[in-house]
Specification:
With about 475 residues, this protein is an alpha/beta fold. The N and C termini lie close together (about 10 Å). Helix content is about 40%, strand content about 20%. It binds adenosine-5'-diphosphate.
Length: about 475
Amino acid sequence: MKVLYVVSEAAPFVRTGGLGDVAGALPTALAKEKIDIRVVLPLYDAIATSYRNSMVYVGATTVPLGWRNQYAGLFKLEYNKVIYYFIDNEFYFKKKGIYGFFDDGERFAFFSKAVLELLPLMDFYPDVLHVNDWETGLTPLYLDAYYRNAKKYENIKTVLSIHNIEFQGNMDKYCISQVFGIPDRFYQIAEYKGDANMLKAGIESSNKVVTVSPTYANEILDPYFAYGLADILIARRYKLTGIVNGIDTEVFNPSKDAALFEKFSAKTIAKRNKNKSGLQNMLGLPESDKPLIGMITRLTSQKGIDLLFGVSRELMDMDIQMVVLGTGDWKYENGIKDIANYYNNKFRAVISFSAGLASQIYAGSDMFLMPSRFEPCGLAQMIAMHYGSIPIVRETGGLKDTVTPFNPVEKTGDGFTFKTYNAYDMLDAIKRAIDVYWKKDEWKIVQQNAMSKEFSWKKSAKEYIDIYKSL
Ligand code: ADP
């Protein structure tokens, strides 16, 4: 089976968050299951020269986009046994950054159409086009509007993955005809509530819509989670499903991670102690056995930082230590820094993006707090479990699907959870975790359970293959 995976970022070439992680790992996992998968992404300026030097130029064509005709070059690179294509157009992609430009709508409309225009140069006509998020939401629509009549395109099936429904590619409605060049008879599909909505176009025109966890697939039928798209999703419910993400266990592996003070595995959990003391020393926290809670997160309203602020005093009155690594909104960065200033002997704030420090926190903290308001899947809680840091999470989206509450009677489970988005419910879950932490034998069981949980992509890859086959 031939699959073309269309995405706006993919590790290791270019990555700004979870989407890049997924796009870096899922294709490799699918290739291992004998899927003939290729990946296509824009050739951003940010892609390192070392990769560019290994790319092969395939050819170029012109992409009609509204009243424009735009150059599209095609480059090819094999990496980890997967073929990656990069679409070149410096007008759109030679910028300092990936997203956030005034012409993002046009940039990604161009990319979404260029993919289809370049299939002949790839000489690869997939059975399934798998697109991701709003950036590539127009591809299935362009396929229907312009390419279906061509023999080699007529049977292509389409899958749209929604990684976070908050981001929909809302543009001025005049973009639909003037910029995207969508024919009038498809106008309704790309329009929503007076705007162009590129994600909605993808939902309407794909054969299947997949979100990154089963719980999130259900949640987005509710207006609270759907950012305005609930009625569309309810109407399209018959093609909506959820598959939980995995993590790249080659990259996130405590027995190989070079950033750690001491490598360890599920069999040598005691070695985590060196990581805890190393982290405490590095951060200037007193070296001690007190429970150390870590957070690694974008500092945005999604991630439940408000709950932390709501009970910061009660939390800091407890006999614990805490470290938060993150960047994001100004108000959250400042609030976190305020707590750190006030509780200088037990709380550290590191306002930066650092993969090395992230590893050290995953390995050195006892607990990992993730009280998200909503969470499509979440990778951080899985990485934490894999590194033996016990997650304390709110039961939403992928957090609910990946963390099993610890049951002290049956000694099952691998984390601590709370349901309502309420600061005191979160505090209660933290207290329950700390109670178990001091019962050292029980804590070891929770850690064993967490570290031995299966998070590789293999299982999810198989579920994606089932979907491809069903189409
Ligand atoms: P989201 O994609 O919503 O940001 P995820 O939990 O799915 O959340 O993925 C976040 C990823 O980014 C994790 O791998 C996490 O370790 C990493 N990350 C987040 N913030 C930072 C940071 N400040 N420094 C290093 N890594 C970070």
